[in-house]
Amino acid sequence: MNGMRLNTKKALWRDGRAVALLLAASLTTMANATISPALPGLERLFAADPNAAILTRLLVPAPSLSVALVAPFAGLLADRFGRRPLLLAGVVLFALTGCAGLVLPDLTAILVSRLALGVAVALIMTAQTALIGDYFEGTARSTLMGWQISARNFGGFLCISLAGWVAQTSPRWPFAIYALALAFLPMMHKAVVEPLKLASSGAGAAIPGTADASWRKTFLALALLQALTNMLFFLVPTQLPFLLDARGFDSAAATGEALGVLMLAGGVAALFYARLRSAIGYAGVFAFGYAAMASGFLCLALSPALALTFAGAALIGTGYAAVSPTFVALALHLAPLARRGLAGGILTASVFLGQFASPLVSTPSIARVGYDGLFGTAAVVLAVMALVAFVTSRKNMPAL
């Protein structure tokens, strides 16, 4: 493993590796949603295409499908050939495929570029997760995982806001925002160094608590739980606009404001992740996070007031920001050093599988129980998850 271990926030800010990984984290959230404000304009721009309506709506979720399919294989590549080349290649591919919509002639070509963008996100997220485990441990690792959620939220908020502004000039201009990755590349190239070869670092030896193959079963359960968590969380961006429209609000404006509140609340909450995990442990963090999300969905289900909709979004963002880094922390603890790339890839895939499955599962449910029933059901499921986490003995949760 590579060099120095960091144990303080002050030291983290001085470590170029930590800064570079935070920059990488800020890229991943912008992959899907950055072009959302441009979708109506793109549909009008390519109105001659008989499939324009469906193709424009596929542009946002398309990267998620690629990430879900490619991330496990990216993890194998990270373990075989190293994390650094995977990360740098992913950033270059991210900029090229993200900006491609500026010049591509039709929606089909743009859709293909969005699928390729998902490959880039898979490379970046997989390498980044493995490198956090390789570089840091203990408090430093927990702190950095919280910070990366904040980086994703704040980065997403800024990029979506900028996209909404430039889309007023041309629906193609939001694609230019992806060039931001090239500005980050020199810092990443300089700061991110490949950890010492796995063989020379004794990676073939077992880490305490992972001496046998039993870690795989626990890790698989963790990945499935993360997929379920993201499937529930993704109800907000996929179904909230329709709920607000059904209640008579200006859905475009209200949804943008609600998602902005969600991102900002999550970004702030994630800054305190390390302190929260230290105070109440992993089981406590899961209980707190799922309880907050359940309360948020209950607000959405029961009240037509826009103020409570924003409060619900803030609670959901806070809860999701608490549980998200916990999945990474537990995965890095469970997986042996030589399998951290694969673990990061599977964990990344589970996030995007949950996102991709969310509208497929929820849309048929709306026909039976309506939007209020859908969000109410989500609140009940999350409340049960919070209760299970609360009664779980903390001594059975690994401590780092």
From TrEMBL:
Q: A GO molecular function for this record?
A: transmembrane transporter activity
Topology versus the membrane: Multi-pass membrane protein
The organism's place on the tree of life at top rank = Bacteria
Region forming the signal peptide: 1-33
Enumerate the UniProt keywords alphabetically.
Cell membrane, Membrane, Signal, Transmembrane, Transmembrane helix
- Residues of the Major facilitator superfamily (MFS) profile domain: 17-397
According to its UniProt record, where is this protein located? Cell membrane
Q: Which InterPro entries match?
A: MFS, MFS_dom, MFS_Efflux_Transporters, MFS_trans_sf, Sugar_transporter_CS
Q: Does the keyword Glycosyltransferase apply?
A: no
Question: Pfam families from the xrefs?
Answer: MFS_1
Q: Does the keyword Cell inner membrane apply?
A: no
Q: Which residues cross the membrane?
A: 57-78, 85-104, 110-132, 144-167, 173-193, 219-240, 252-273, 280-303, 309-335, 342-361, 373-392
Q: Which GO terms describe its cellular component?
A: plasma membrane
Tell me which PANTHER family the record gives.
CHLORAMPHENICOL EFFLUX PUMP RV0191 (PTHR43124:SF3), PURINE EFFLUX PUMP PBUE (PTHR43124)
What's the protein name? MFS family permease
The species this protein belongs to is: Aureimonas pseudogalii
